[in-house]
Specification:
heterodimer, A: alpha+beta, Porin, 57% strand, elongated, B: mainly beta, six-stranded antiparallel sheet, 11 strands, signal (chain B), DUF6452 (chain B), signal (chain A), DUF6048 (chain A)
Chain lengths: 263, 159
Amino acid sequence: MKTFIFTCFISLLLCAGVAQAQQKTDSASAKKPSAVKTDSATVHLKNDTLKIHQTYPAGLRIGIDISRFAMMFFQPYRTDVNFTADARINKDLYAVADFGVNRTKHSDTNYTYKGGGAFIALGVDYNLLKKQSIHENNMFFVGARYGVAMFNYEFPTYTIYDNYYGNVTGSVPKTNEMAHWLEFAVGLRTEVLKNFYMGWSLRVRTLLNSKIIDGDYAPLVIPGYGAGDKKAVFDFNYTLSYLIPLYKLKAPSAPIAVPKKKK
Amino acid sequence: MNSMFKLCAGLLLLATTFYACDDQTETCDKAFRASVRMRFKYPRPIDGRVVDTTLPYVTIKSMMGDTVAKNQTGLTGVALPLNGVIDSTWYYFKADSTVLGDTILFRYKRHQQFISPGCGFATYYHLDTVITTRHAIDSIQIINKEVTNNEDIHLYLFY
């Protein structure tokens, strides 16, 4: 039931996000003049050809994934703190880094579990919003990432119940592991206040070294990846981020031929 | 088109959220208790072809002294649990009240396996040898040495 309520809440946020991004995009396309801002443009005239060199602000956008805090309510055994950072490379392409830490602690009548570690995922996002001005950083994106996690885990106690021959008890000592995966993302990021962004994304991850899962003792959680006993997982995140405007990028310029005056 | 896109995105997010929020430790979806599963076989006198057979009155006693089955009719096979505490288990096996019973001894290696966050651990077995007396049983054929699931057949008992 709590999963259902949370899902409805997330869907409302999604609809609000999509509507806002669309509004922004529409207004951007309506305000055509912003695409030809002159305050940051330099004009060169050479051999009857007009060249406009235009720049636009870019920077480092740093965010936190707030969905991980909600996740603690549904999966109380895991604590995750995930951050995201992206930087604009050109008009449509952004370099992305997701990183964070995880701690997992579980105890029931079958076993106890302790684990923790950190991860980083690097990749790119490609903005599919074509109508907006290059001065905006709103995104409807698809992206790909390569992720690596270093983590350790142990089962301090476990019990296999057998009321005929007798219970079997044991423990699995601490193991250090590395996992790496490929991740594909689709999502949205919109500017809600100046330089403040909200966004969501859906993720699908596929584990590249499934040796961990195929072994005798699969981990409960792989930091940054998710369920430690699955070769592919789906996930979502909801980020709040702030753009630090650090640099300017040069917009692609197309030469415009100037028509000659008739004599 | 635009509302269609929003609907699709909403449904996708809904499904993903359900999936991602699921507490895996709450439900056990792969309940497992390793047992050796056997089928009774018999060579037909007419053509010698080996076929499944039904034993008339099966009585099985375990190494703990309990009677697992007594004069049970219509059995074409049985599943017997292995002892997860030691590396061998034996059963006394009587196919009919008119014949002498046999003792079947299973020797195996054990290892514990994490099944799933909801189910916890289970013991997997690797059968090394199966030894039997030959009062009624003619021979034994090991089909599968790995006792790791609830479906596989591991032994044929030939009468």
